[in-house]
Write a structure and sequence with these properties.
Order of helices and strands: EEHEEH
Strand content: 5-15%
Mean pLDDT: 77
Radius of gyration: 40 Å
Strand order of the largest sheet: 1-2
Helix content: 40-55%
Distance between the termini: 88 Å
Shape: rod-shaped
């Protein structure tokens, strides 16, 4: 990793395999009275590790933000697509209902639809002609 002969110490992250930056190290050290020994080398290594960890944390945070923004954008796209599909389905249902009503109005047979609880939802004119009660006291809705 760090060699005393190098002019810079590489900032590497333990999480990433590429170089994050360079930490300039003066050769000779800034203080001419202090030798460039193992203590100073360890100081540079510890400093570069601390800076690399901080820089990696910042980069991971930025990548996480980008990933979240992409996920939000994808979610919005899916939401819009589903909204369009729902709109198309609603239009198709309305078209089918109109076709059924036209068919039922022109049919010569009695056609009716009951709700799950029993009352009529739809009855065509043929139903009223053939099945309508003659007694005015009887409610045809039940």
């Amino acid at each position: 990793m760090f060699n005393a002969k190098n002019l810079a110490s590489y900032l590497r992250s333990y999480f990433m395999s590429y170089i994050l930056g360079l930490l300039p190290t003066p050769v000779p050290p800034q203080n001419p009275r202090r030798p460039y020994n193992n203590d100073y080398t360890q100081f540079i290594q510890v400093t570069s590790r601390l800076l690399a960890t901080s820089l990696a944390s910042i980069l991971l945070h930025k990548e996480d933000l980008r990933r979240r923004e992409r996920a939000i954008a994808n979610t919005e796209a899916v939401k819009n697509e589903l909204r369009e599909q729902l709109s198309e389905s609603d239009k198709e249902i309305k078209r089918s209902l109109i076709k059924f009503q036209r068919f039922a109005e022109r049919a010569d047979i009695s056609i009716f639809i009951l709700d799950i609880n029993g009352p009529y939802i739809y009855r065509n004119d043929a139903w009223y002609r053939t099945c309508a009660p003659k007694d005015p006291n009887v409610d045809p809705n039940k």
